[in-house]
Amino acid sequence: MNDVSMNDLKKLKPCPYCGNTGLMLYKQNNGLFYVHCGRYLCDTKFEVYFTSKEECIKAWNENADLINGG
Ligand SMILES: [Zn+2]
Questions:
Q1: How many domains does the chain have?
Q2: In angstroms, what CA-CA distances link 56 with 20, 26, 34?
Q3: Which of 1, 4, 21, 54 has its CA 20 to 30 A from that of 30?
Q4: Ligand 1 centre from 24 Cα, in Å?
Q5: pLDDT confidence bin for 70, thresholds 50/70/90
Q6: How many other C-beta atoms lie within 10 A of the C-beta of residue 34?
Q7: What is the mean pLDDT of residues 35-46?
Q8: How far, in Å, is the centroid of ligand 1 from the Cα of 51?
Q9: 42 CA → ligand 1 middle, Å
Q10: Is 1 within a domain?
Q11: Is the pLDDT of residue 1 over 60?
């Protein structure tokens, strides 16, 4: 149930650094989640790890809002 689906990816706001909408949400082997923008020359990795994908998505979106100034 805690695997990442397309539906989860759709909840992510675009990368606040480059506008990329094709972000990836990864689950590490230790079960923690993080967001990664794989766009060339951006390569932003959200260096905070969460035990649930919901928390990770929420935190990424809040961070994107902060960086976008709103
Ligand atoms: Zn990016």
A1: 1
A2: 18, 10, 6
A3: 21
A4: 11
A5: low
A6: 19
A7: 93
A8: 23
A9: 5
A10: no
A11: no
Round to whole Å and give the CA distance between 47 and 59: 11
23 CA to centre of ligand 1 in angstroms: 8
CA distance 6 to 61: 16
Ligand 1 centroid – CA 50 distance (Å): 20
CA of 52 to the centre of ligand 1 (A): 22
Helix (H, G, I), strand (E, B), or coil: what is residue 50? Answer: strand
pLDDT value of position 48: 87
> pLDDT, tens digit, for every residue of 16-36?
999 999 999 999 999 999 999
What residue type is assigned to position 9 of the chain?
L
Q: Give the domain extent around 40.
A: 6-67
Distance 19 CA to ligand 1 centre (A): 6
